[in-house]
Specification:
This protein is mainly α. 69% of the residues lie in helices and 7% in strands. The protein is rod-shaped and about 95 Å long.
Amino acid sequence: MSELRLLVCAVLLNLGVAAVLGVGIARYMIEAVPRIATVGLTELVTEHAERTANAEGTAGETAAMTRDWAQALEDALRQVAERHGAVLLPIRGVAAGAPDLTAEVREEIARALAGGRLLAHDSAPAQGNAPAERQTANSQSAAPEVRP
């Protein structure tokens, strides 16, 4: 009878350990799987192209403005994705059911570009070697993270 008790206790102990490990693994996997969200990249690029076409300036200024915007877009996509723990896909690539974060990306771009304009008039020493590096470094620290 004593051996049977010992066997039952060992089986129950093993089941308990397996249950705890199973719950831990399941919880980790659920937290590690990112959500899917969409961004209207075509819409954002079209808006920038229209602003650029209507802007006055030289070809060099237009090219610099486009480079700054492209860097701001890249940073905004990364920041919004990290903030939401999501993988961002073009809106046309998702049939339905994913939240659209285009407005938030647009706000991040505007915030980054506003920070970049302030840098253009600043005569303080640069943090990076190139203007885009200075803008990226300052726009990341200047824009507060807003948690939903």
